[in-house]
Each structure stands twice: as structure tokens, then as C-alpha cells.
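Hmm, what's this shape?
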Amino acid sequence: MAQEDVFKKLVSHCKEYGFVFPSSDIYDGLGAVYDYGQMGVELKNNIKKYWWDSMVLLHENIVGIDSAIFMHPTIWKASGHVDAFNDPLIDNKDSKKRYRADVLVEDQLAKYDEKIDKEVKKAAKRFGDAFDEEQFRATNPRVLANQEKRDALHERFAKALNDNDLTELRQIIVDEEIVCPISGTRNWTEVRQFNLMFSTEMGSTAESAMKVYLRPETAQGIFVNYMNVQKSGRMKIPFGIAQIGKAFRNEIVARQFIFRMREFEQMEMQFFVRPGSELEWFEMWKAQRLKWHENLGLGHENYRFHDHDKLAHYANAATDIEYLMPFGFKEVEGIHSRTDFDLSQHEKFSGKSIKYFDPELNKSYVPYVVETSIGLDRMFLSIMAGSFCEEELENGSRVVLKLPAALAPVKLAVLPLVKKDGLPEKAREIIDDLKFHFNCQYDEKDSIGKRYRRQDAIGTPYCITVDHDSLKDNCVTLRNRDTMEQERVAIADLNNIIADRVSITSLLKKLQ
């Protein structure tokens, strides 16, 4: 099945089973804005807890804050967002649709990658175990031709971005014969810059109103509180500040479900270090963050690093951790060495010293910063995409979300075999004991097979079936979602058995 069809099924599944709804759905929705349903909010909260605990619990020198969405407008002047937070946009004159010029070129690069991968897969199928992929990539004429085109495009594209050459960016689109997905034509306007910040006014009267912005990132809330945290917590360099919060960007090209939205959530940690040591810490955090992602068990081969073609004006190193979504490898987390740009700018614009006195060096300096930043919504999408499966069974088929057990919205379902003979009452006893420890569901409607399928579809790792023997031996049948294997266990042991398999702690221990 084509990946595009798989993605459509995933989007439909998210709505049908209460993970993600279009915002304002009864009013036909609002572009690129989504609501998380009853299952989605549980999964989202579990992702947050996994990230937060991995930062704050596992590192003695990392603490958390929660800064306000509204901030003094000069902050955004100091950070460069007022003058330089732009996307290069291009319009198609026939469809009247607007696109990000850089994304159009990135999609073209991805097409060359797809052509190469297609040739490799065909050859692997043809030659079987004797296939040497490295040799094939180095010698096959079609692979080499596409690789040459890709490399040439990539070099030209990177130069245009670094030179901020909008004319050249448009020319690349023309030369590559990139068409509008809607009209199918190449009738393009010039490329121009568009600022992404939402603005509003704050004040009791129109005359006294001050223009403020909805924050386009959460990082600045950490930077302006850096001294407050350092002094009140008596923090010593190196140390980090973590934050989870909403951010807002007026994305013109909002697409691919929750991958690119106008209102989104970030999980960011800013790590403050001595000048000159930042690149060592950058490499350390690269390794740490990739390990965190791979720890979820979604497949080592589905992750890769992608170094930036164009560094932000404040950075001296930057890379993305990309995950293989149904629409290709896409960024889920960025790791950036931001130098001392942010803190120096806020010191300059505020007129207040925010230097750190290092007692070991006996001198003061503005710390350098290494940032790790995850788009929580993108992380959510990567986990859903990596967990969505359609399986053919001997007695039919099933759709199952093989979510990491520690992140699953519902940890276990308790199912009486029939709705009589005291089985529902016994099932309720079990729920009443376990609900203090896990998010549980009770279900007695339909056959046991249909109930299993419902729990598979929302990713419940374990189902407990209460049968007539349970009333005699105080044991139940424990069913595993992924293998569908069943084991007989004592009711008294359920808490310990399940806790060991579904707790966030079980994930965190693997990071040590």
C-alpha cells in the first residue's frame, strides 16, 4: 500500500478513536489547528512525562520552569524575531496557492532520494541474499545519475539559503520544473519573505495599547529567566533549564496533519556552558537525544541526523533528529549550539548585566547555550505513525497501535467474559484496585474478540479477562497486545506484573 494511503488511514484512525480532531469541527474546522481527544491527551501527557522526567529527574543540574506566553515586546526585538523571523514564500498564479519556496525544493530533493531507494529495493529483491547494497549504489548508472542530480541541487540550494538569495531560490524552482500540486503548472511569482509572528494589543484603552506578540518559541522565556533560576537555585555552570509550552506561528504552508500547525507545543531544554566547551556539549546532547528517541523501540533505522544547510545567525552548530514519517524523513527534534547570542542580546537590550561569575575560573562571562528542542506534536505524530499496523490473522484482520507500553493512553482493560454470574462484579473489584496506579478501561459489550480489537485500536498493551474460573482460583487471563499471547496470572500479582511493563520508570532506567 502506498505511504500516502497509509497516512490517510492514520489520520482517519486518529479521529475515529479519539486521538486528534479538527479544531472547531462542527464549524468545518480551522486551517492547521487541531484538538487532542480523550486518547490523544493521555498519549500527549505521557510523552511529556517521559521527556520531563528524563531531563529533570535524571540530571541533577537541570531544573524546569513555566514562563508566560505574553512577554515584553522588546524581547522579540532583541532575539531577532521582529526583523528576521521569516519564511521565503512563493505563489502559483493559477491555483492562487502559496507555498514555502524552501519546502518545494526540499520535496524535490526527497524525490531524488525516493528514486534512488526504489532502484535499491528493486535490486535487493532481484538479487536476494547476494545483494551488495554499497556496491550497487556505487556502480549502478541510474543510481549514480540521480545522485549526481541530487548533489548538484543540494549544493545550489544550500548556497541560495546561506546567501539569502531569493531570486536564485525561484530560479531553482523553475530549473527543476517544480509544479504546483494543485494546478500542475509552473506559473510562479517571485519569492518574498513573510514574518511568522502573530501580534495583538495589550492595554485597557486603544490609546494606551501596546503591541505584543504570541511567542513563536518557548526558548526566550528561559533566557530572560536565566539569572532568576541561577541565583534562586544556586545553580553552577554547566546547568540546564527545561520547559514545555505552547508557541504560535502564522504558518502559510500548514500541512501534513499535525506536523506543521499554527498553534503547537514545544519541549525545550537550554543548557548553559562555559564558552569554548559548547561543541563538546553539543556532541554529548546529540548522542543523548538520539538515545532517548531510539529507547521507544520504533526502530533504529527510522532515525537519522540531518545537519543544517544554513545555520541560524546565532548558531555555530546545528543538527536535526529526523524520523521516517509516511511522507519521508522529517524533523522531530533540533539540537543547536546557540553561542552566547541570546543572553548577550538580552543584556544589551535590557541594560542589565546577566554575566555568570565562575568561581573555578575566578572570572565573569556570558554563558554559551546548547539547545535541545522537540516539537511535541511532531513527536506525537512520529509515535502514532511508527505504531500503526494492519495485520492479517487466521480469523480475519486487525488494526493495532503498537504504542510503547509506557506511553499508551490506556494501560489495561478489564473484560468480564459474560455480563452475568458475578463476573462484572469481580471485574469491577479489579478495576477499583488498579485504577489508582494505571489508566484502566472496563468493557462488557460485544464478544470478547471484538473487545480485544477495540483495545488493539487504541493501543492498550494488556487486556485482563475475568472468567468463571476467576471466581474460584482468583486468577485471570492476561493478554499481550502485540503477540496476542495469553497467560494465567493471580489477581494479587497484577499490579506488580503490569507496573514493571508499562511504567515510565521502565523507560527511564534504559537511559542510564
Summary: The CA atoms of residues 25 and 34 lie 9 Å apart. Residues 101-127 form the longest helix (27 residues).
